Amino acid sequence: MDPRRHTPPISTGTRAPQPATPPATPPAHLTLAHWLLEAQRDSSPDRLWQLFLAPTFARLWYGARESGEMLRAWALEWLHAHQRRPGGPHPDPREPAAFSPRAILNTAAGQLGIRIWQAPASHVPPVEATTRWGRQDVLAWLITHPNATPPDLAVRYATADRDPDLHFAIACLLGFVCKERARLTDPDAPAGVLIPPRDPAITTILHQFAIGLLCLPRDCPPTWSCPCNQIRARFNYPPPTHDQPTDTLDVAAIRTHLRSQPHPPDRPDPPDWPDR
Question: Global pTM?
């Protein structure tokens, strides 16, 4: 018996939108599967940081948040348009939304052709994972199907649908589907259950996607075990000879800072409009 016929979706307030046209398959070096394979070959901290600081990983890492924001924009556009009195046609995905995270997640899942449903207690996989919240039961997982059918997203039975942790877990899995859609819908893909990836290289990418999709603060809380904040700090580390963030200073402050720096006697004072 198919449990989905007897369990309600986590939200029934809106009709599922039509699936959006799937994006083109990214190059192999920009897929999550590639980085998961690289991390499995050598999981030592030094090797992981070599992967984290690679240019291709940086593009994937920043692109994940951008992809989450784009999916959020599509979901908000659909929600705005399908009201009795429609709102603005292009809501800013980086601004607080007029709709709940649950409505945004259900609409975003519909854009990807995915149904979110609540699994009964008898169909919940008895698995645990060490996540950003510590070791606990997995809150959500993917169920893959053969014949190029998009996966389903199941949530744990009796989990509060307004739980922020559940929203974040769902957003991460939607990010996994976006990045690995071609593999998940391959006609030869086997049916099975996929729990959220545990590899730190994959986790941090999915966190960035979820941050963009849910419009969350840029930094992860310091109590989380993910490397997101460390990666951002290393990416943004300023040159030793230019440690002052002049981008955030006014002209007077920039001139004061530059005058205080040691320079050769033949170097003139900085002009009114410094070029650095």
Answer: 0.72
